[in-house]
UniProtKB/TrEMBL annotation:
<comment type="similarity">
    <text>Belongs to the methyltransferase superfamily.</text>
</comment>
<dbReference type="InterPro" id="IPR013216">
    <property type="entry name" value="Methyltransf_11"/>
</dbReference>
<feature type="domain" description="Methyltransferase type 11">
    <location>
        <begin position="42"/>
        <end position="146"/>
    </location>
</feature>
<keyword id="KW-0489">Methyltransferase</keyword>
<protein>
    <recommendedName>
        <fullName>Methyltransferase type 11 domain-containing protein</fullName>
    </recommendedName>
</protein>
<dbReference type="GO" id="GO:0008757">
    <property type="term" value="F:S-adenosylmethionine-dependent methyltransferase activity"/>
</dbReference>
<dbReference type="InterPro" id="IPR029063">
    <property type="entry name" value="SAM-dependent_MTases_sf"/>
</dbReference>
<dbReference type="GO" id="GO:0032259">
    <property type="term" value="P:methylation"/>
</dbReference>
<dbReference type="InterPro" id="IPR051052">
    <property type="entry name" value="Diverse_substrate_MTase"/>
</dbReference>
<keyword id="KW-0808">Transferase</keyword>
<dbReference type="Pfam" id="PF08241">
    <property type="entry name" value="Methyltransf_11"/>
</dbReference>
């Protein structure tokens, strides 16, 4: 598996092209909470897959990521739209640069996993710290929505073993509701499918893509959501 830290620093354009081949998640979010006129924090914004679709409809959005290179793509996409209220900032999920009770919606797409994976030191403590930070910045009755992988190359959920404990904590320790969705990649050609799969997921999956002619590459994603109550 390629080093994703290097991908997020040095292959940002390829990454942005790859995720552009997946369906929009706007309807998924809107099914869980109205978004008009909300103050939003996008944790692990990456190249802006969630910021892009939310920014035109919300009151404000703060896009956070550990990669300044990724956030440059977000800025490039949104800079000419003067009607948007957005800000990008390099940040660690364990210390969100936002005031208490400042967000109505927190979204985190394919990102907390890098702190919560069982092969990461202090993973359980990391998750606890992140959850405390989310609850700190979230207003009462606000919503947090987390997206994570449930398996690329699979038509039904097949989550990686090293993420199962993190997912269990979300549901059993922190009280998140959960469902899964399909987030298939629809590539333009087999050559593109090979290139965009290989750089991010590695040779094994890319070889399967070529062998099976997977211009449409199936993928499952988990959606976890929680509303901050008044207690």
């Amino acid at each position: 598996m390629p080093d994703h830290t290097k991908v997020y620093k040095n292959q940002t354009e390829l990454y942005d092209q790859m995720v552009s081949k997946q369906p929009s998640l706007l309807k998924v979010i809107e099914e869980l909470t109205p978004i008009n006129q909300l103050d939003v924090i996008d944790m692990g914004a990456g190249s802006g897959r969630l910021t892009d679709i939310l920014a035109p409809q919300v009151k404000s959005i703060l896009a956070l990521d550990s990669s300044a290179e990724m956030l440059k793509i977000v800025d490039e996409k949104l800079k000419d739209n003067t009607g948007l209220s957005y800000k990008t900032q390099v940040a660690d999920h364990r210390k969100i640069p936002a005031a208490n009770d400042s967000a109505d919606l927190v979204v985190a797409g394919w990102t907390i996993c890098y702190l919560g994976s069982s092969n990461v030191e202090n993973n359980v403590h990391n998750i606890e710290t992140v959850m405390k930070e989310i609850m700190r910045v979230l207003r009462t009755k606000g919503t947090v929505i987390i997206f994570e992988t449930m398996g690329t190359g699979f038509e039904t959920p097949n989550p990686p073993e090293f993420l199962k404990h993190y997912y269990s904590l979300l549901e059993n320790e922190y009280g998140f509701s959960h469902k899964w969705i399909r987030t298939d990649y629809q590539f333009d050609s087999l050559q593109q499918a090979d290139e965009l799969t290989r750089f991010f997921f590695g040779d094994e999956l890319a070889e399967r893509v070529v062998k099976e002619n997977l211009i449409t590459l199936p993928e499952c994603a988990g959606v976890w959501w929680l509303k901050k109550d008044t207690n």
